[in-house]
Amino acid sequence: MRVTEHPLISPAIGTQRTLVSQHFGVAGARPKVVLQASLHADELPGMLVLHHLRGLLQAAEAQGRIAGEVVLVPMANPIGLNQTVLHSQLGRFELASADNFNRSYPPFADWLMEDGHAVAPLLTADPAANVATIRAAMHAALDRHAPVTELDSLRHTLMHLACDADVALDLHCDFEAAMHLYTEPPCADKLLPLAALLGARAVLLAEGSGGRCYDEALSGVWWQLRQKLSVTEGQAFVDSHPFPQGCASTTVELRGQTDVRHDLAQADAAALLAYLTLLDAVAGPVPDVPALPCQPTPLAGTQVLMAPHSGVLTYLKTPGDDIAVGDVVAEVIHPATGQTSPVVSTVNGVLYARHIVRWATTGLEVGKISGAQAFRTGPLLSA
């Protein structure tokens, strides 16, 4: 294992933070897989999972079984890790800017169309060569758009580590949740075996959920660039200068914030190693992939349950439960008057996430159910 330290831009005199990456295999070997944990720094299950995966990879490395390149970023957000206010860790938003740490990643498809730096003249009839060209152009674009702030430098460093990856796994969690994944439809076929190995209860699909998340910046460039080139160069050019989906990326939601347990993390690490073996990044017997315990659904089909008024929040359903139209998922109880309001599902699906608090303010997002029919528009993720 090779360890690299990446200094971030200093936000103030006397302050310096560093991002750490851990590298297995030969640099440039294929496939390249990047796994990072806790980009939202108060979402800790991924850190424990990568702790256990690191041990498995070190054992595989000692046996000469690292066939590709595997990069771990075990603490993807040193800025958020230091944001403890009144004994509470605030790891989702940077306090200096109010920016979400998992938003505003580079618009690579736009950058690769810029005057003087357009990638189109460099493409050929060779798909593999085109993938290499696009990956090199993404690195060059990052260098061209130099970061200014500490948060910018974190985003740029994470992108430099992952923009040439074949697969990128961003490990998060929700408040209280069943295992679930977010990804884009062009990535689904490559990632559904991972969802099955992890036992995901929901796989949410969207082409651009809004906000340019880490994973969508990596996967979106490929299909977005193809669309842009079809407009500027014509579909015949796209057909004669082909390139595949060069990166399959996903946000893996490792259950809930308090699910930081060795038994869960060890099982998840074993599933990730099995997936790395399936990708041929780690040599070994091909693992058996179980049946996927859910059907992928559009993120736009998710029902976001809302508290109708303030009060004590009590749940009648648990993350991972199958939900039918009309089921009461939770109740909000006014403690002074006794008014009790049911929170009712209007879709069939799985309750894949719910809130961790038990005092509801009016309009609180109480839970999320994976409906099969798309009906939502606009930004599909919360702030």
Describe this entry's structure for a reader:
The chain has 383 residues and is an alpha+beta fold. The chain is built from 9 helices and 20 strands. The chain has helices spanning 45-62, 78-81, 108-111, 127-144, 150-162, 188-198, 214-232, 235-240, 262-278; strands at residues 2-7, 18-25, 32-37, 69-73, 84-85, 88-89, 167-174, 176-177, 180-183, 202-205, 248-256, 297-298, 302-306, 311-315, 322-323, 328-333, 340-344, 349-354, 359-360, 365-370. A 9-stranded mixed beta sheet has the order 1-2-4-3-7-11-9-10-12, with helices on both faces. Strands 8, 13, 15, 18 and 20 form a 5-stranded antiparallel beta sheet that branches. Helix 6 packs antiparallel against helix 9. The chain is globular, with a radius of gyration of 21 Å.
Helix/strand layout:
Blueprint: E1 2-7, E2 18-25, E3 32-37, H1 45-62, E4 69-73, H2 78-81, E5 84-85, E6 88-89, H3 108-111, H4 127-144, H5 150-162, E7 167-174, E8 176-177, E9 180-183, H6 188-198, E10 202-205, H7 214-232, H8 235-240, E11 248-256, H9 262-278, E12 297-298, E13 302-306, E14 311-315, E15 322-323, E16 328-333, E17 340-344, E18 349-354, E19 359-360, E20 365-370
Parallel strand pairs: 3-4, 3-7, 7-11, 9-10, 10-12
Antiparallel strand pairs: 1-2, 2-4, 5-6, 8-18, 9-11, 13-20, 14-16, 14-19, 15-18, 16-17, 18-20
Salient structural properties:
nine-stranded mixed sheet, 9 helices, OB fold (Dihydrolipoamide Acetyltransferase, E2P), Aminopeptidase, single chain, 29% helix, alpha+beta, 2 domains
